[in-house]
Amino acid sequence: MLNTNKNIKVVFGILSIMFLSLIAYLSYFEVSYAPRLLSNPYNTRALIEERKVKKGSIFDRNGKVLAYSVKGNDDYWNVVYPDGRIFSPVVGYRSLRYGNMGLEAYYNRVLLGLGSNRPIDVLRSEILGRSKIGDNLKLTLDADLQKIAYNSLGNNRGAVVAMDPKTGAILALVSKPTFDPNTIDQDWKQLNSDPNSPLLNRALNGLYAPGSTFKIVTASAALKYVTDIKDKIYTCKGYVVVNGNKISDYQGEAHGNLNIKQAFTVSCNTTFVKIGLDVGKSNMMKMAEAFGFNRDVNFDLPVTRSTFPPFKLFSDNVELAERSIGQGEVQVTPLQMAMITSAIANNGVMMQPYLVSEVITSDGRVVQRTSPQVYLTPVTPDIAAVIKDMMISVVNSGTGTAAGINGIQVAGKTGTAQTGKKEDDAWFVGFAPAENPQIVVAVIVEHGGAGGIAAAPIARDVISAYLRR
């Protein structure tokens, strides 16, 4: 009898452990796995169920509708994008065949009204017969400015990023070529075979050599680590030889004797190679990482990491020389260049970039609001002020005069990045008004040639439109 009771207790204990394990697994599945499965953009079954929900709308900062739901003849909800091509790199698409992309993917649960709710909460709403209406997104984007940036980029491949340097709010984010999310199913095969990669968000995921725009980082490193850098004079003969490798200035122009400000103004490669060698590999790495290289950007959409790789153990000075002028293995996204520029505009403080300002329920309640946050502090206010003065000189009398605006002081830096192909990539980064910056703009035109010619006028148009409304 005693043995029987003991066996019963053992069996009961085993069954209890198995039951508790099952409960633990189901709880884990419900809390951790089920939400991911439900929101997976390639879960076709979930996508069919989603079409029973009136997805929330997406608005710009002024209330202009960028995406909204309409009921189709099949009694399912479809999303319509009024200015599809212009906003598709941000808003993305919704497709039963190909899943979701952009905000449609990364804020899918919010737009479906699920928010942070667990699947069991969704089931409860189903049982109680609650209406299926998603939450709305209010963005920091300015729709009018987005259109101006889009049109100014023309038929070029490239990107434009505009942001508020004091808050990190993204004002415009353009990538070209682009696509129409309203016809994504019909266009899918052509879009994926297009060598120009229209589905690539160049503003966030395109990696480019920054060219001379990187001289902002090099100059910052020199001001911090090189003694008396502002008083040093360098001689430019139109080229410099480093360990047997010749590095030339743009079109081989010899600039003569220059200090750091003069070299920055005319974008002298020879001088900045020498400045970079004075800074040294370790200090250059420190400053690049202070500006956010080799670091993931926490943003509302995926951002490819900008990279400044560690120097090879036994590398010579050629690698440092190339990187000092934004060539070699330095790779950067247009968003990262906008963030670097924003730190100079904002007295050395880089703000966390953000795109979604509010989540608003269908009955008008704000359930989530983004507050500006400091991201990095790469340089001191004093160094930022010196770089700002140099950037003003670039626009007033240097390589960036095409970015000048009557009555508004613009500060900027041009870049012409070698790509190994016939035409270089054209860059311009800048902000205005220089004395109280309200907007930062980064522009890249793929294979556009000189940054001061191809990219600076685009930045000028965007800055002028924003400040003169």
UniProtKB/TrEMBL annotation:
Keyword RNA-binding recorded: no
Pfam families: PBP_dimer_2, Transpeptidase
Gene3D superfamilies per record: DD-peptidase/beta-lactamase superfamily, Penicillin-binding protein 2a (Domain 2)
Entry keyword set: Membrane, Transferase, Transmembrane, Transmembrane helix
Domain Penicillin-binding protein transpeptidase: 158-463
Membrane-spanning segments: 7-28
Keyword Transit peptide attached: no
One of the GO biological process terms: cell wall organization
Database matches in InterPro entries: Beta-lactam/transpept, Beta-lactam/transpept-like, PBP_dimer_sf, PBPA_dimer, PCN-bd_Tpept
Residues covered by the Penicillin binding protein A dimerisation domain: 56-136
An annotated Gene Ontology molecular function: penicillin binding
Annotated GO CC locations: plasma membrane
PANTHER family according to UniProt: PENICILLIN-BINDING PROTEIN 4B, PEPTIDOGLYCAN D,D-TRANSPEPTIDASE
Protein name, per record: Peptidoglycan glycosyltransferase
Organism for this UniProt entry: Caldanaerobius fijiensis DSM 17918
